[in-house]
Amino acid sequence: MHSELVATASPSPKASNIRLRPSIVLLFVVLVVPIFTAMLWFTYTTNDKMTRSNAKELMERFRFEATTNTQNLLKPLETMVNTAATLASAQPAFFKATNSVQYLKDIIAHSDTVSSAYVGFNDGTFRMVMRTPAGLKIHDKVVPAETDHAYRWLDRTVPADPVDAFSFRDKQDKEIGASQVAAVYDPRLRDWYKDAAIKKSTALSTPYIFSSSGLPGITIASPFYTDGVLTGVVAVDITLENLSQFLADRVVSPRAMSLIIDEQDKVIANSNLKEQVKLIDKKVNLKHIGALDSDLPALAMVQQAKVSDKNNFTFVHPTSGEEYAVSFSSFASDANKRWQVLIVAPLDDFSGPLKENNKRLLIFGTLAIILQILFIYFLSRLIAKPLERLEKKVNDVRELSTDSQKQVITSPIREISSLSRAVDTLDHAVRSFAAFVPVSLVKHLIESDQQLQLGGHSRFLTVMFCDVEAFSTLAESSPSNELLTRISAYLEVVTLAVNEEHGTIDKFIGDAAMAFWGAPAPLDDHAWHACAAAIRISKRMAVLNAQWVAEGLAPLQIRIGIHCDAMMVGNIGSKHRMSYTVMGDAVNLTSRLEEINKEYGTQICVSQSIYREIGDRLILRPIDEVTVKGRRTAINIYELFDVIDSNSSSSAVETSTEILEQCNLTKLAHQAYVDKNWKKAVSLYEELFNRFPEDHLATNMLMRCQIALQHKLE
Fold first, then answer.
1. Is the peptide bond before 159 cis (omega within 30 degrees of 0)?
2. Does the chain have fewer CB atoms within 10 Å around its N or its C terminus?
3. How do residues 642-658 score in pLDDT, each as one tens digit?
4. Which CA distances in Å does 556 have to 435, 488, 706?
């Protein structure tokens, strides 16, 4: 048993991780790509510096334009209002005369942002020229469709009740309609009049609703005096819509945002015309910059507190990563408001062309590198592909794989073609060898670099015997070819189940099969895997038998015995012919357990040691306490119905309630049997039989209990 075989396994050289095809590609990449990449990077960085320099210059222009635009908006209007106020001071009766209408008309014609120009006197008289946008309502009536502008006159100096009169004019200044109502409006009560009178200079109102048009806007007003006494106030209106349109028409870049914000960071005007000021209960409702659809203004306000230059800086958007330029400038007005103009623009709007060139350069360079790599890759593939396929085939042979498809490898290279034929021969030998010797055994011997020698050692293993019931009768009644086919199908089921549960087929003895778990390679939980294999065999044989019955053939009834214990495992035989197997009393006991199934009418019988190892993960029931042939000590045996997945926390997930009930009733009856309470045992086994008439174990044990009860009564 201890004589050594002459041949010894040689240590395998350490496998190299270097592959042919990647090596060819890598060689090209190392030699060519760095030079090309360096040239590409130099060009890119040069362009990037130019881009940033250009962006800086454009930012300076950006700030200048922001200030200039706001100055171009209000400064001329303030000048015109002040000029009109000077004229009124010099000629107090000028604006009360009808010919002053043309003067007011010239004021609104000066700028598209001005919606109306007017004069209010200290006696309550009021004269106005205003634009009339489509759909405008005056005195609760829509103005005529052709109306371009309107004249308004209110004279509170007449003895009669004063009227508020409108004259609607087309583009040729021809009257096309009129409207008048009793005068309610009094300019002296309006905030623009009172603010200018109190300040005694030009005043800019907060946004409010214009009484004439019902639109939200602001007013620039300037008082005029006669002999030091307030005579009236000259004013112009700018709708917030026109103010926003002014910003939209003068954005410094395509994606820039321009805002006018007040002291509370509320938006008065927005270049985004989709976010206009809303009216709630006939009052102006200004949005806070934090409530805008775009988060850029709010982010700019936050960043302003973090930088030294509060008026001109850049920041990076925290989400998109895009860089933005920001400009803050005071609202260009000599009036009484501390408003600001906020402009936010993406830097890419200024440096876009150069960045686009850089992007194209990167794309072109990357594509050029990719195309070069692809070219060399396909060239390397032409050379390396046959070798790679041959490598895979050699690896399959090395791994003793019998599942891989046979492939014919051809190559124009003579050496590769010759090597391919040699590997084909070796592959055929391995496939033939694997049909007779457990592949797991050979793999274990190769991987462990063990000497191939006679002898063995003791190890705790699990053994399973599987046999066909009444095989002799079946052999006598079945044609040889049919019998061979059916037995082969049955043994294929056994082999597949054992392999799936990481076991080793020891041998086939006619219609019987022997398998074991835990050797040659150690296996955790081998008792559970053996039981799981038995359940797989039982279920698959049920399907196979159903097919045979449908074909008019008798089913094959199988019996399985499973036991775990310490046993000898190793190589037996001679140096010329060896067999890796298990031996010992445990093997004999397993064989007896398989035979016991016939006596009790069960299918899968497991030993007490199996129950001790994994009983909590098995669906089983007690059979009896028996003394098997060749042993003096009695053991408890159990019938196995199902296994509980070792990875599952639930019990008997796929086990029917009927089986669970059958097991529970059997346990109660068996306990009475063990206690020798024969009357109770008979009653319980009768209940089990009545509930499950086809339960052979119930029939067998009922008969035993009845005999024992009769002997007791005698």
1. no
2. C
3. 998 755 433 334 567 88
4. 24, 12, 32
